[in-house]
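EI: anyone free to look at a 261-residue chain?
SC: sure, send it
EI:
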Amino acid sequence: MPTDRIRDHVGQGAPTVAAHRTRRRLRADQARQLADLLRRQLLSGCFPSGTLPHESVLAADYRASRNAVRQALDLLRAEGLVERLPGVGTVVVAEKYPHGLDRLMGLAETLHEHGRVTNEVRTVGPVPAPGPVAERLRVPPGADVLYIERLRLLNGLPLSLDLTYLPLDIGSSLLGCDLENTDVFRLLEDVTGQRLGHAEITLEAVSADAHSAAVLQAPRGAAVLMLERLTHLADGRPVDLEFIRFRGDRITMSGLLRRCR
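SC: here you go
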């Protein structure tokens, strides 16, 4: 909003407290908008040298003030995506990996172009099914299900903490399998002789509890992406209920949506 319009809004004469607050709000809005644009640019590899253009260049390219550019870079720095190096400028220091939501794939299949996914199997064995788990997997209340807890790493860096429940008649066949180096999806198709069909998903941001934060090597209370996924075989049987906590600073979710008519 131009300065003269601000003055028209708050009154003529010397700048008022309201006008000052309005200018600060407008600059903060502009900084947030610019941070959103730059975040997409740097995550898409648009700065192959790893260094962002000078603040004056960014200001000219995005028609923003230098103050707004500085605030936008501060926001990205707080997210751990960029850092300011003396004599160098603002450099990209973190990378987020794309996780598609429009195809049913395991993590290793999804991220194979970005490195090697390995699994630290923290817990595996039969447990009585909690009520909501039994209902969703369509097993009798209290029946045993196979529970697997895995820390999933990409190139050695913690990426997600996966809590998985499987019907025991299928899950027991996975006990002798290589859970450290193989996606559960692939193993399920191997042991059942069926293709996976579809999955119901819910995605939300939650705060990392002490246990999750410690395992993921993330600050306690940091925001993590929680993906709840119930996967079915091609014949419709639900076989895999997962609660996956992703480090929000290392993953980005994307998909292709088409409008229904």
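EI: The first helix runs from residue 3 to 10.
SC: 👍
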